[in-house]
Write a structure and sequence with these properties.
- It is a single chain.
- The protein has 235 residues and is an all-alpha fold.
- It contains 8 helices and no strands.
- It has one domain.
- 66% of the residues lie in helices and 0% in strands.
């Protein structure tokens, strides 16, 4: 019999793989900033552009499998604020440009999404799917149309003001929509909350490593930015 709190190994492994891909992409991006002649490989450019979106979808899927979503959301959002304060301190010390301050990054987005998940999970899948697609469409329209507003406090929604910048930017539109689609996907794929790959040996060294990274993805994400930043300063 499956234990109530048993983790689904492939979710942890995929989360770990994605977080490592994002770290590698960030490292190569920093290298490209140091050496202007260095061109980013297409796969790295893809991860930089879409890796975060895949992570948001996976987080929505994972929300359907866990408990205490609001409490976990508070922890993740607090991690985002640690990165915001850290980037502000780095700017004050002259280590970063002001444009690199993290104002509303992926941890802010995921923390907020997890906190509102208790409300989202009450919605039928058809409504969630419609809501998710609508939020994604609005976000794409705001981005492609370069819509700007005067207010300086609406950027978490995707409404930027002239001159706005953020070292990591994951506004609610469109990304809360991707989270909603992840919820729908989780309901479909993991309704019974059991692995979809029962015949795979999850204790293989590589898979175990990915699982470990996935189970500690928040800590890894928070730590990798100052580590890469320090290496950037040294180089």
């Amino acid at each position: 019999m499956k234990e109530k709190n048993q983790r689904i190994w492939e979710i942890d492994a995929l989360r770990g793989f994605l977080i490592l891909c994002v770290i590698l992409a960030h490292a190569l991006f920093y290298l490209s900033q140091i050496r202007q002649a260095f061109a980013l490989p297409p796969t790295v450019a893809f991860v930089i552009r879409y890796g975060g979106t895949l992570f948001v979808v996976l987080s929505g899927l994972s929300a359907t499998l866990g408990s205490r979503s609001f409490r976990r959301g508070l922890t993740v959002f607090a991690g985002g604020m640690v990165l915001t304060l850290g980037s502000l301190a780095a700017v004050a010390l002259g280590w970063l440009e002001a444009s690199m301050v993290i104002r509303f990054g992926v941890l802010h987005l995921l923390g907020f999404a997890m906190m509102v998940y208790p409300l989202l999970k009450k919605l039928p899948s058809a409504v969630l799917l419609t809501l998710g697609l609508a939020v994604i469409a609005v976000g794409c329209w705001l981005d492609l149309g370069n819509v700007l507003v005067r207010s300086h406090i609406l950027f978490p929604l995707g409404l930027r003001y002239p001159g706005f910048s953020s070292g990591d930017y994951f506004p609610l539109a469109p990304h809360l929509g991707w989270f909603c689609l992840g919820i729908v996907l989780g309901r479909r794929l993991y309704a019974d909350k059991t692995t979809r790959l029962p015949g795979v040996d999850a204790e293989q060294p590589v898979l175990r490593f990915f699982r470990l990274c996935g189970q500690n993805s928040l800590l890894i994400f928070i730590l990798h930015l100052p580590v890469l930043g320090a290496l950037l300063l040294l180089l």
